[in-house]
Amino acid sequence: MDCVVTGGNVKVLAKAIHSLSRIGDELYVEPQEDGLALRSVNSSRSAYACFLFAPLFFSRYTVHSGHTFRCKMAIKSVQAVFRSLASLEKTVEKCHIELDDQNNRLTFTLHCKHGLMKTHNLSFQDSESLQAVFDKDSYANVFRSNPRLLVDTVMHFPPSLEEVTVSVSDERMWVRNHVEEEGDQSKAMLTELCLASDEFDHFAVQAHNSVTFCLKELRGLLVFAESTGLPMSMYFDEPGSPVVLSVTDSVLEGNFVLATLSDDSNHRKKNNSRGAHTLPPPPPDDFMNDDIDSYLIAMDTSVAPGPSATGPPTPQLADSICSKQTAAASHRTRLHSEEEEEDKTTDSGRPPNKKFCSLFFGSVLPPSPQMSTQPVSSQQVLASDSEDDVQ
Amino acid sequence: MPLSTQSQGDAEQYVLVASLDNARNLSNILKAITFKDHAIFSATPNGLKVTVEDSKCLQANAFIQAEIFQEFTIRDDSVGFQVNLTVLLDCLNIFGGSTVPGVSTALRMCYKGYGYPLTLFLEEGGVVTVCKINTQEPEEPVDFEFCSTNVTNKVILLSESLKEAFSELDMTSEVLQITMSPSQPYFRLSTFGNSGNAHYDYPKDSDMMELFRCTKTQTNRYKMSLLKPSTKALALSCKVSVRTDSRGFLSLQYLVRNDDGQICFVEYFCCPDEEVEEQ
């Protein structure tokens, strides 16, 4: 691989690496015919991010055809190459990325102002292909907006907040902080923002669902989207199947795939308390409703997939993993424990009650290039639900 | 002025009296060499030299010329003493070291001679504080025998360009390798860290390069931990002269401009870590 990035694109590349660092500790680099893919995944494999920079993004892009190469390296060391993000635009004129096969080094050369040249020879490890299986085109709910809208929305949540819940109706989207069920409800503060459909560039709802996912990664991609000024899209289906956040341009594509909380706990609770299987009404009214109980009821019920949820073609991912039935059925045969994911949770003494399903990744050698659109049957890593044995 | 009236009477007993309208002109430059507690002060009619050393491998000198001081009276050819630099700096900032323009601490520094404490009269806004710092037996600073006739390579850079490099240096690297050469790569800083190596190359015709005089290719390694304190001096400075002698000893000279636009110098000497074969 041999490629050159010039001008403002250096900053775009740096920002992309920066937002990938919000996901995981390692950067997976794969030069492909259709562009340079940079990926990252978190340790529990519940969040995955991929940026694909098309050959046109570069002023020179050469890959050795017929020779697949992929590697991973500590994302910190790549971040160090672009350490001074703020001054990058002013100082760096050209960035040259080259693979040195002989010495097993990936070389980043920054040509800076005043003739200063910074060369970073980074060591790497060979890696398997990293690929999340998702097909965002089949998702029932699709939204696109200026990143500013979401930036202004998440701004209202404290940095310590881990998850947000997004619910949608035909005309509105509600974003609220996710409150642990087992937590002390009387002490919980609920923050909810309501966004009207006309604030979005695109607002298509087929399933009145609500999903809960991690805020940290969303913030990570928002930083990128905001700095590049690219609109951000969100795709989701039903609780338990991943939400896809995406930024697309003619020369680059960024996809963040985040697991959402599966809703079997809600079911359990509902079976205990109410038998009602009503349509998922989002909170009745955005401003007038200050009754916490009704919020809680709304939270309980709104996550239940209504009849309309089965309307659109179910994505393969949902088929293969995270629908609550399979999760419940397979939770004894899980392959991968989720505990490690929630370090913070355990630290703070709260019970580890998250039920994020891992995304499916093909951990395969060699990979099939069309993997992203096909469910992988045998090499999937599944982190199923844990700790539901209280039933 | 309370400062002068109070100390005028006993001026004769002091072997050294130095006054500054703005104590920050002294404290700033001392901060650039603060990496060990003990500082050796030696005063001559030309000015004040303050020396700090580490492990006999690193030496930092700050030079404050007599002209910087509003008053600089010395009754011997040379006066030497050693004090705790951290304590001295605390005293110089005893009024909080305010950076508000127009507000400054005036300083009168007096020393009676061997065995006496260093006495500081500090005044700000009409309040006078007198600090007495016990002096210690002055140690003999290590002579690095770095003389300009043995200098093989020398470059002068605008500090701005080195600041960037030093702020980005991979601190997981144990050493900083400096290559100076009349041919490519001219002036190169290299680190060898956990995640790989990095090189910063400065071409000899860069706008940042004020002088380039290299006669022989030299590659030397210096302990990162030893060079780290020199970034304090770099941060203050506007130009830096990097020199190596035939033994590979490194001299870094920083030109520092104080609040009043006067020029002082800070110099670091560092021993090379190990011999590297010349390429």
Automatic annotation (TrEMBL), chain A:
The keyword Nucleus applies. It is found in: Nucleus. Pfam families: Rad9. Residues 370-383 have a biased composition (Polar residues). InterPro entries: DNA_clamp_sf (IPR046938), Rad9 (IPR026584), Rad9/Ddc1 (IPR007268). CDD domains: PCNA. GO terms for molecular function: double-stranded DNA 3'-5' DNA exonuclease activity. Residues 263-291, 303-391 are annotated as: Disordered. GO terms for cellular component: checkpoint clamp complex. It catalyses: Exonucleolytic cleavage in the 3'- to 5'-direction to yield nucleoside 5'-phosphates. One of its GO terms (biological process) is mitotic intra-S DNA damage checkpoint signaling. The keyword Cell membrane does not apply. Keywords: DNA damage, Exonuclease, Hydrolase, Nuclease, Nucleus, Phosphoprotein. Belongs to the rad9 family. Component of the 9-1-1 cell-cycle checkpoint response complex that plays a major role in DNA repair. The 9-1-1 complex is recruited to DNA lesion upon damage by the RAD17-replication factor C (RFC) clamp loader complex. Acts then as a sliding clamp platform on DNA for several proteins involved in long-patch base excision repair (LP-BER). This is Cell cycle checkpoint control protein.
Automatic annotation (TrEMBL), chain B:
One of its GO terms (cellular component) is checkpoint clamp complex. Its main location: nucleus. CDD domains: PCNA (cd00577). It is found in: Nucleus. GO terms for biological process: DNA damage checkpoint signaling; DNA repair. InterPro entries: Cell_cycle_checkpoint_Rad1, DNA_clamp_sf, Rad1_Rec1_Rad17. Pfam families: Rad1 (PF02144). The keyword DNA damage applies. Transmembrane segments: none annotated. Keywords: DNA damage, DNA repair, Nucleus. Belongs to the rad1 family. Component of the 9-1-1 cell-cycle checkpoint response complex that plays a major role in DNA repair. The 9-1-1 complex is recruited to DNA lesion upon damage by the RAD17-replication factor C (RFC) clamp loader complex. Acts then as a sliding clamp platform on DNA for several proteins involved in long-patch base excision repair (LP-BER). PANTHER family: CELL CYCLE CHECKPOINT PROTEIN RAD1 (PTHR10870:SF0). Component of the toroidal 9-1-1 (RAD9-RAD1-HUS1) complex, composed of RAD9A, RAD1 and HUS1. The 9-1-1 complex associates with LIG1, POLB, FEN1, RAD17, HDAC1, RPA1 and RPA2. The 9-1-1 complex associates with the RAD17-RFC complex. RAD1 interacts with POLB, FEN1, HUS1, HUS1B, RAD9A and RAD9B. Interacts with DNAJC7. Interacts with RHNO1; interaction is direct. This is Cell cycle checkpoint protein RAD1.
